[in-house]
Design a protein that fits this description.
By secondary structure, the protein is mostly helical. Helix content is about 75%, strand content about 5%.
Length: about 300
Amino acid sequence: MKGFITLNEMFNKIKTRGLNTFLDNLSFLGILFVWVFVVLCFGLLYYFLSGPDSALHYTAGGEQVSSIVDTIYFSFVTATTTGFGDILPSGTFKIIVILEVLGGLLLLALVTSKLVSLKQDIILSEIYEISFNEKINRMRSSLLLFRQNISRVISNIDAGTSKKREISDLYIHISALEDSLNDIMSLFAKSGNKHFTKEVDSLNAELILNSIISSFEKLDELVNLMNSRKIEWKREIAVNLMNKCISTNEKIFDRIISSKNLNDKTMAEIKSRKNKAVEILQKGIEHAKDKSPAKLQKDLKGFIEIVE
């Protein structure tokens, strides 16, 4: 049936994955050591199993090879498919030679592929590091853009040129902040796969956290300004997004603390700034004039009663 696999297919997949993992974990020196060990084993095999029916013979005089050095030499020549022709096998050694040639070719191919994969790993790691740094810069740029947008709103309010549309669309900027915080949280997420993964260094971690706190401080400035000017900005969607940003921010700090990317002193200073910024924002939300539908309905009802 479609969507199901047989037990044989499942076992084959497990074996294939296990073999691939084993080969990937082998270093170049490890593979080379295995190849040399196999060649030496064949050389000793030629020496100890040599007899009247199966033996190695010199081409020049036809004498049987009795030196262990020559049998190991013949094994290396056979494994590398060099074939000088100075020593020839006889009897069952011909079959063993064929097996050694096949095994030697496979191991040599494995050594060659490992050399190529090492070069590929270097290139891929460099590409990953470049893309990783670009991702960090993009996140910091998105936070900077958020602060610039909030600063523009603040300037318009101070100049008296702000429009209701600009205030009502404030949730759009807050939504962008939430997206940036979610991206940052995924950046600090722990992954079980160690291939081509890179942890954020202490410098970038500190820069990102300071950028997050500066964004919250800029948002605090806007909220307090709107409250002081008695601007009705408090909408359910904006408040919900602010609360989500606060919650995501807490998760980011928890992950960084658990990863221990920053020293205790630096982390304590940043955490103190974060707590202060979040506390100011929460108070600003509480003190804001309520623009919820329930409040509007209540005000409208009271207005109708006065008119009647």
